[in-house]
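Hi W., the zinc ion complex you wanted:
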Amino acid sequence: MKPMISPSILSADFAHLAKDVEMLNRSEADWVHIDIMDGVFVPNISFGFPVLKYVAKLSEKPLDVHLMIVQPEKFIQEVKALGAHVMTVHYEACPHLHRVVQQIREAGMQPAVTINPATPVAMLQDIIRDVYMVLIMSVNPGFGGQKFIEHSVEKVRELRALIERTGSKALIEVDGGVNVETGARLVAAGADILVAGNAVFAAEDPEGMIRRLKEL
Ligand code: DX5
Ligand code: ZN
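Structure:
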């Protein structure tokens, strides 16, 4: 099965964001990955809703919104207003994850949960049937262009096994350090969607790179 590709605009040229979003519109990308940070849950800040409003207006692709913030439930209506397809929250940021997942669904979006590199896949056992997607972080969240953490391939295999065992229909997405080489191994392990920031936007031919990743 060919993977879906969700390029991360964290690595785009923020001074010419429209140009990069238009490139994604022309490309074979399936979604656009949007990383929202708060400087608290992660040691960095990216962009907020006033900027994303314009990205949403320009994008012809579904938005895949990844919130790296504490109390993400406070922003469900803002994410909804962007017209997001998927809203992903961190397991580590939600003591009442089940409630947050229901709230995202009630708002009319697809709920997804993500785990940091140090969080075991087993922690998802009691939420796996309720989510549309699980995102495996293959770097510590907060920055683009980091080195892929090898153990993530094993986590994708474990997650695939958990999904099969529980009869869940959850999709598997992976985020961080994804390129042609790591991407091929992730797809072989069972990944459905690859997020790619640096691999796409630092490439000489970003559209060509998206095409190559889709062929994995
Ligand atoms: C990291 C973000 C990623 C980031 C990935 O905190 O969640 O989505 O943009 O960038 P690359 O693909 O460059 O590792
Ligand atoms: Zn992300």
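Strands lie at 4-7, 32-37, 63-68, 86-90, 110-115, 133-137, 171-175, 193-196.

W.
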